[in-house]
Amino acid sequence: MSSRRGVAGPIARRGLGRTLTYGASAALLVVTLFPVLWLVQVSFKTDVEAMRVPPSVLFVPTLDNYAAVFQGKFARSFVNSLIVSVSTTLTSMLLGVPAAYALSRASFGRSRGLALWVLTTRMAPPIAFGIPFFLAYRWLGLIDTVFGLLVIYLTFNLSLVMWMMRTFFDGIPRSLEEAAAIDGAGPLQAFARVTLPLSGPGLATTAIFCFVFAWNDFFYALVLTRSRTLMAPVAIVNFMNYEGWEWGRIGAAATLIMLPVVVFALAVRRYLIRGLTAGALKG
Amino acid sequence: MRRRERVFVVLLSPALLVLAVVTLAPFAFLLLTSLTPLNLARPATWWDLSRPLANFAELPEDGRFLNSLGVQLRLSFFTVLAQLLLGLGAALLLNRDSRVLEAVRALFIIPMVLPPIVVAIVWKVLFTPDISVLNWSLGVVGLPQPAWLADARLALPAIIVADVWEWFPFTLLMLLAALQMMPAEPLEAARIDGAGPWQVFRHVVLPLLRPAIVVTVLFRLIESVKAFPLIFIMTGGGPGTVTEATNYYAFLQGFNYSLIGFSAAISMVVLAGTFLVSYVIVRWVGAQVDVE
Q1: DSSP per residue over chain B, as a string?
Q2: pLDDT digits 0-9 by tens, A15-49
Q3: Which terminus of chain B, N or C, has less C-beta within 10 A?
Q4: Chain B partners of A99 at a C-beta cutoff of 8 Å?
Q5: Is residue B98 part of a domain?
Q6: Model ipTM?
Q7: Domain count of chain B?
Q8: CATH 1.10.3720.10 region(s) of chain A?
Q9: Which of residues 93-132 of A touch B (CB under 8 A)?
Q10: How many CB atoms lie within 10 A of CB B42?
């Protein structure tokens, strides 16, 4: 009865238990990661090699697919995705961070109505925003523009910034600002000189979430853009022709798209729950 | 102090104003559109409010819409159930103090952070007989090798498998967080009283986990409506309409057939469901749960 962790005790007990736990965890991990790794290895195969039966595990890797992907329209779409994701992140942060600070420090009462609003917009099915934005953009000439996508991504990213940064600001003691106020700093100065510099990790985490959510979007990019502002997730679909799928290129493009996301996500994994539940839970 | 409050209002207003413009205005527009027979091919149908409830009256008559609700219901039920069981099992497994498991946990999040389009492609590759390593393995052990996505009985289960894979890391993370917050005393007390592992789990751990389980299920339930890229890439709603979930049906009506008014009405129904579950989370559940 020496287990330190309360819940682990009944499931696994000391030596044998640990071996079983590690074994089962390893098995589960392999099963979980296998599908992604399989796609990645397809990206290093020629289409002939990819269709070989039985599937070849040992093969001479080729970078042809990556070269082909970079020469085509996909490279342009990758840049488009970067531009849109970065600009929507900056806009959301610029508007949302000061608002989050105000929500954290002012006494606006229990803002449950606001919480419901934020959560509903965050969780709304994309089609619900897709239709009105599509109609409005046709009228305003914003279909297939960077600005159009930037604005529709605000529907989820702005509220995300407000909610996430609010919890980060809640964690920074007010006494520091009060000390600054005694030294004659106004509320804005206290925010800019004291609180903001202490919020580095929170700002970075929140910005990463904004970037990833914009980067991962497929639906809005599909409905609101054509060829000029082609986004990377939609560009992949172009490798699925009537003549057949170009598996190698699809694999290469998919690998390139997931790379930044996986790196970023591992960096902010401690805050994943907070980001994915739009701050409805403290996480 | 008055000056302080005024500063706060200045900091808050731009964001709230923009948020209102990008969320409330489209919502009003969607509602209005759902009351018209808007068809992009027929300009006269803009702002035609002569029969405002016609779309909604048509919904219960539309067999394809009813079918889409059934598909959505099955999709949501089985994905959320499987994610809960798998996530809970994995959380119990990984809940130990150990450097190795700590590192392993981080890798489990990968499926849920991948761009959904990539998840769809990953599973399209695994379920397409020509290049499927899955089918090849089945062949090796002498089992039939079905054309998963072209088979009316297997297409929806295939999508369910992909969705479960994509999102069980979420239930895993949520429940693992709850397990780590759990006080040790009740567990030790139960063990001292002679309870076996299963009894401890059933009568102590599970009741303590209940709030976290409820909130996790609610979140997954809302999100289960968004399986759009999976359906779009893997089956396109087919074969026939067997994987045509409500969200996807609304997309087809609006953006393939240009029946925007009708599509808006379907979206309103889906949105109402989202709002209801969000309300439950904010009003009752969220406040009780503290996951860190």
Answers
A1: -HHHHHHHHHHHHHHHHHHIIIIIHHHHHHHHHHTS--BTTBGGGTT--SSTTHHHHHGGG-HHHHHHHHHHHHHHHHHHHHHHHHHHHHHHHH-S--HHHHHHHHHHTHHHHS-HHHHHHHHHHHH-GGG-HHHHHHHHTT-----GGG-TTTHHHHHHHHHHHHHHHHHHHHHHHHHHHS-SHHHHHHHHTT--HHHHIIIIIHHHHHHHHHHHHHHHHHHGGG-HHHHHHHTTT-STTTT--HHHHHHIIIIIS--HHHHHHHHHHHHHHHHHHHHHIIIIIGGG----
A2: 777 888 888 889 999 999 999 999 999 899 888 78
A3: N
A4: 11-12, 14-16
A5: yes
A6: 0.88
A7: 1
A8: 68-276
A9: 95-96, 98-99, 101-103, 105-106, 108, 112, 115-117, 119-121, 123-132
A10: 11
**The pLDDT of residue A5:** 46
Q: Chain B closest CA to A99's CA: distance in Å?
A: 4
Which residue in the set A22, A236, A280 is minimally distant from B117, CB to CB? A236
Select the residue of A105, A112, A219 nearest B8 (Cβ to Cβ): A105
B114-141 residue pLDDT tens: 999 999 999 998 998 878 888 888 888 8
Mean pLDDT of B280-291: 61
The answer to whether residue B12 sits within a structural domain is no
Judged against a pLDDT cut of 50, whether residue B292 lies above it is answered with: no
Query: pLDDT (tens digit, 9 = 90+) per residue, A132-167?
Result: 999 999 999 999 999 999 999 999 999 889 888 988
**pTM score, whole prediction:** 0.88
Domain A68-276 = CATH 1.10.3720.10: yes
What is the CATH classification number for the domain harbouring B216? Answer: 1.10.3720.10
Distance, in angstroms, between B277 CA and closest chain A CA? 9
A vs B, Cβ pairs < 8 A, gives: 297
Distance from CA of B110 to the nearest CA of A (A): 7
Instruction: Give the pLDDT band of residue B287 (cuts 50, 70, 90).
Output: low
User: Is 60 exceeded by the pLDDT of residue A109?
Assistant: no
Closest Cβ–Cβ partner in B109, B121, B279 for A269: B109
| A10 in contact with B, Cβ within 8 Å | yes
- Kindly state whether residue B128 falls inside one of the protein's structural domains: yes
| Cross-chain Cβ contact B197/A10 below 8 Å | yes
DSSP 8-state code for residue A7: T
Q: Judged by CB atoms within 8 Å, which residues 128-187 of A form the interface with B?
A: 128-136, 151-152, 154-155, 158-159, 162, 186-187
* pLDDT tens column, B13-27: 999 999 999 999 999
Range of the domain at B138: 54-288
Confidence grade of residue B184 (pLDDT, cut at 50, 70, 90) = confident
Is the confidence at residue B89, as pLDDT, over 50?
yes
Determine, for residues A281 and B215 on separate chains, whether the beta-carbon distance falls below 8 Å: yes
User: Does A194 touch chain B if contact means CB atoms closer than 8 Å?
Assistant: no
Q: Tell me whether residue B105 is in a domain.
A: yes
